[in-house]
């Protein structure tokens, strides 16, 4: 049972940690995006390889272009913010150098982001609230359980929204099909009467 619980919790823990390393060419811009739920603590630590005559800026924004963190000529540091709504967040690194491309080696960038339970510093919480190791572990499990419940609640909400959208689309398609059939029947009836009148005018039929 304990192994099963650990397997169920493993995907949540993996999704809460985002660590990546990449090379940033001079005079270029690279952005990383991630969707995060509402009221979630996000922390991060970055380290940028130093290059002479090169300035690298870091900027974190949401989908509305609101700046959550910004650092010019960044080299190494940390950041933290709490999300106000479920949104897509963008972490951008931009390199600038007067030397031009091809003359300056690419910069190595290390980025480590955590959110949710993994972003909380339980050692500091234990010091402030004077908690015992067992109490700290219980607090961690409580926060993790709450995070899982919130994730399932969000998934249920999304499923309900998708179901409502699907039902609404099916209803519209049904009405459109009925309208199209009525139009076709009306057009066919008009053609029959029009041809009948035309043939009578030409005295081809009585």
Structure description:
The chain is an alpha+beta fold. It has two domains: 106 residues, GOLD domain (Jelly Rolls, Sandwich), CATH 2.60.120.680; 75 residues. The strands form two sheets. It has a four-stranded antiparallel beta sheet. Helix 2 crosses helix 3. It is elongated and about 100 Å long. The chain starts with a helix and ends in a 5-residue tail after the last helix.
What structural class do you assign from the helix and strand content? Answer: alpha+beta
Output the CATH topology of the largest domain. Jelly Rolls
CA-to-CA gap between the ends?
A: 88 Å
> How much is the radius of gyration in Å?
30 Å
Shape field: elongated
Q: How many E strands?
A: 8
Low-confidence sequence ranges? 1-15
- Number of helical stretches of at least 4 residues: 3
- Can you tell me the CATH superfamily of the largest domain? GOLD domain
**Total tally of structural domains:** 2
Largest sheet: 4 strands, antiparallel
Instruction: Give the overall average pLDDT.
Output: 83
- Helices and strands, in order, run as HEEEEEEEEHH
- The residue fraction in helices comes out at 40-55%
Secondary-structure topology with pairs:
Layout: H1 2-15, E1 17-24, E2 29-36, E3 41-48, E4 55-61, E5 67-71, E6 76-82, E7 87-96, E8 107-115, H2 122-129, H3 133-201
Antiparallel strand pairs: 1-8, 2-7, 3-6, 3-8, 4-5, 4-7
Helix pairs in contact: 2-3
């Amino acid at each position: 049972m304990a192994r099963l619980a650990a397997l169920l919790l493993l995907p949540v823990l993996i999704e809460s940690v985002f660590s990546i390393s990449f090379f940033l060419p001079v005079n270029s811009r690279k952005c990383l995006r991630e969707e995060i739920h509402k009221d979630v603590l996000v922390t991060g630590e970055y380290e940028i390889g130093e290059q002479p005559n090169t300035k690298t800026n870091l900027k974190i924004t949401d989908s509305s272009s609101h700046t959550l963190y910004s650092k010019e000529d960044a080299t190494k540091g940390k950041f933290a913010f709490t999300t106000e709504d479920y949104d897509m967040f963008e972490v951008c690194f931009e390199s600038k150098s007067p030397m031009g491309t091809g003359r300056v080696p690419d910069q190595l960038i290390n980025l480590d982001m955590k959110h949710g339970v993994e972003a909380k510093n339980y050692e500091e919480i234990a010091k402030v609230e004077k908690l015992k190791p067992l109490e700290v572990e219980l607090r961690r499990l409580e926060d993790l359980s709450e995070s899982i419940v919130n994730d399932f609640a969000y998934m249920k909400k999304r499923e309900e929204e998708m179901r409502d959208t699907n039902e609404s689309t099916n209803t519209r398609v049904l009405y459109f099909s009925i309208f199209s059939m009525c139009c076709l029947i009306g057009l066919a009836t008009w053609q029959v009467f029009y041809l009948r009148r035309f043939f009578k005018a030409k005295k081809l039929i009585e």
